[in-house]
Fold each of these.
Amino acid sequence: MLDHITFGVSDFDRSVRFYDRAFAPLGIQRLFDDESGPAKATGYGDKRPWFWIAEHDPTSGKLHIAIRAASREAVDLFHQEGLLAGGVDNGGPGLRPHYHAGYYGAFVLDPDGHNIEAVFHDVA
């Protein structure tokens, strides 16, 4: 089970604006802002912060992070809001049957090029 992830971003304020907007349809919000250390950090989550970005040491290499969505509609809105927030399309909403029959996902590259995915597992 994933407890939390933290990675550095190249433009902290731009990334905060992106994640604030792209995560809202998934029920993920900014829960914690930390300016007490040598660099700013922000934590996102639903009940507790588990997704963190930090102002320092931009992560080299591209990450792929998939976030579980509650519905296909939430995946669609994540993709839409991610693009409106400055993200780049990396695979529009749709079924990905090569993963499994009910795999419905969308991919957006964040401002640093990290591949952020929202996925709904429709296994009815």
Amino acid sequence: MRTERLRVVDNPSELRYELWSAETLAGSIRYTRDGDVLTMVHTEVDPAFEGEGLGNTLVSGALDDARAQGRRIRPLCPFVAAYIRRHPDYADLVA
């Protein structure tokens, strides 16, 4: 696992959540927005960061932010849907 500071941020102008490792964009979740519902359509982690569990870090950060913002989720992305199945504490976010 990388030791750089990881952070997940919402970038609404690009319609994506971004995972940053130090100053490098390591991954993103693309979404569409309809009111307070975010449809998560695609998760991608840069190949240089694959195999380090950063996809899970990205999804949990995005779901935590959605919860904090009072939003609901439509997990069309198979990776996000599988994450929610493995972590049922996020099931209440599903629209």
